[in-house]
Amino acid sequence: MRVVIAEDDAVSRRILETLLRKWGYEVTTTLDGEAAWEVLQGSSAPSLAILDIMMPGIDGLELCRRLRQSQANVPPYIILLTATQGVSEVVKGIEAGADDYLTKPYDSDELRVRVQVGARIIELQTKLAERVQELEVALNHVKQLQGILPICSYCKKIRNDLNYWQNVESYVSDHSQAEFSHSICPSCYETTVKPQLESLHNSRPAVSDFSN
Amino acid sequence: MSFDQLTNNENAESNQHPVAPGSASGIASDALDLEVLNAFEELQLDDGSDLIVELIDLYLHDAAQRVSQIREASLATEWVLLKRAAHNLKGSSGNLGVRKVAEICQKLEWMDRQDSPEKIADLVQLLEYESAGANALLAAVRQRRLG
């Protein structure tokens, strides 16, 4: 899993980077909020962000707000870091859109488990997003056969989107994943097939006609 | 290397550092928590480099700049800049167990308009004093590690 760090303090940044690499994460380090924002807008953006609140330029809180306003399919999990103690800082951080919060100097074990929680939530969000996408694709197929279809009362052809009259069978095939196996229903057998067979039978010359 | 060994050794070889009179080891133990620093042993890299030395180098470079910023900001009565620099130095000091410096930085960060310029100046002076002492200890740790 990829993690981006935004931390202007060199010592804190190096410690954080070393810890995360040790725990098996792929780490991108940035020195301020602007650089972190650019990394998080990239095509293969990290899914977890650890942001210092107090940074030059865009600070951690502002970066949180921007990330929450962006339309990412799976938004990054954000852990805020600060050297300031106090409930108001926590409230500000969470209100800005952070998922979690740690006060420096933090315990490395606490950071490890909080990052693990983040990774677990991202995994769930990713699975959920994939499932939603699958459902949307399935729903698109269903929608293609919804609505009012103009159908001929006599021949039962359907007028398609291009204004052509199309056989029911081919129309349904084009607009769904359904396939057809051909057979004859009892009603059609009685009303259509049986009379035709009888007619055919009656039109044949009798066997006795060839006997002479 | 024990903490006492380190501090005794450091006191012997660095008379020029502003070590406080009286119990030098007592001040040193307030200044630097070696357990915090030694905890980074577990994070040592496999590439042969010494993470603790690297962290000390980063800290010494950063601390010198921050203390200078704090001093200049206090002289110019730029309280926002002073608090910001104090906040940053508090963070990096806390990470490496440089306790006394972190404590003074916290006091500076929590200063308000009612505090007298004299009080702030005293704190800045104390910060410079403690920072120099902690930096000397860190430099000794660094020297010892490099052999």
Protein model, in words:
The complex is a heterodimer of chains A (212) and B (147). By secondary structure, chain A is an alpha/beta fold. Chain A folds into two domains: 138 residues, Rossmann fold (3-Layer(aba) Sandwich); 45 residues, no CATH class. Helix content of chain A is 48%, strand content 14%. Chain A contains seven helices and seven strands. In chain A, the strands form two sheets. A five-stranded parallel β-sheet of chain A has the order 2-1-3-4-5, with helices on both faces. In chain A, strands 6-7 form a two-stranded antiparallel sheet. In chain A, strand 4, helix 4 and strand 5 form a beta-alpha-beta unit. The longest helix of chain A is centred in the middle third of the chain and has 36 residues. Chain B is mainly alpha-helical and 147 residues long. The longest helix of chain B is centred in the C-terminal third of the chain and has 30 residues. Chain B has one domain: Four Helix Bundle (Hemerythrin (Met), subunit A), CATH 1.20.120.160. In chain B, helix 1 crosses helix 2, helix 1 crosses helix 7 and helix 4 runs antiparallel to helix 7. At the A-B interface, helix 1 of A face helix 4 and helix 5 of B.
Cα(first) to Cα(last) distance of chain B is: 12 Å
Low-confidence stretches of chain B: 1-28
Quickly count the helices of chain B: 7
Query: Structural class, from secondary structure content of chain A?
Result: alpha/beta
User: In what range is the share of β-strand residues of chain A?
Assistant: 5-15%
**Domain tally of chain A:** 2
Could you report the average pLDDT of chain A, rounded to the nearest whole number? Answer: 88
What's the gyration radius of chain A in Å? 34 Å
Largest interface: A-B, 16 and 22 residues
- How helix-rich are the residues of chain B, as a percent range? over 70%
